[in-house]
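Troubleshooting: if your tokenizer reports a length mismatch, compare your output against this known-good record of 337 residues.
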Amino acid sequence: MHTAPAPLVDRLGRVHTDLRVSLTDRCNLRCTYCMPAEGLDWLPRAELLTDAEVVRLVRIAVRRLGIASVRLTGGEPLLRRGLPALVGELTGLGVELSLTTNGIGLARMAGALAAAGLRRVNVSLDTLRRDRYQEITRRDRIADVLAGLAAARAAGLAPVKINTVPVRGVNDDELLDLVEFAAEHGYRLRFIESMPLDAQGAWDRSSMITADELLAVLGTRHRLIPVPRGPLGAGRGTPPAEEFRIAGTDTVLGVIASVTRPFCGTCDRVRLTADGQLRNCLFATEESDLRALLRGGAEDAEIERAWRRTIARKGPGHAIDSADFVRPARPMSAIGG
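Known-good structure output:
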């Protein structure tokens, strides 16, 4: 008889059931809030986890640690060669699998990913204007992103979510337009407060549109009805997004206030970087090298113990909005969303 694994618990009693797996630090955009125009020094391919190593670590996470959901991230995960085959292996472990992408390449791959077992997709999109998209990303690719969104919906990935980071003086005049666009096409829009995770260290608190400011703008056109923030199910925690339904419609939008309304107290996430480093928080200042254990011949039990020790050390929160905040050494593109 199969017994359920002991939960992956930290010292504050938070149970971790959600794993973020970065598949690459590479990206085909150069977003101004993420990295410099010339890009970054990518990890050497030999340092990246192989497909077999990713599958083994996820298997340990699911069968020995109680992980229930896995989100594939990057960099840009669609740049990973052979991604549909890897998705098929991961879904074969019985885990709920989703993916976060910039949407470039999604039109070409959505069908194969859905057929392999991918359940949901989140697409990053901060503007609907071609010129502004080119300014933000330094690439003229918005048509590819819009085609990718449509292909994901056609492939049955549901809900198709759009992640938007509102920034003062950049796209704050498009917030209502983005809501209308998502409602028209049946996408689920989520606004995310900007966070200090850019490679340049140029994040400025004053440029961040707060959740309160955002909701005030949306309230000028729509009456927003809060959606109860219930548990995700299957032993998982509560979702990070505060959700609102637009009165008189079925349209639901989310707000993730990572800075001004942090949800650290109910965090159920753990992160694995593309080079096999385990992080117990997006803003962690230390990592555990699971790749070294894998390549050193460690047994599953030893890797499980390392995983549990890392989570046991997790702190109470990220403290972004306080004077005590310390930025992580890695930028977002090298951590995984």
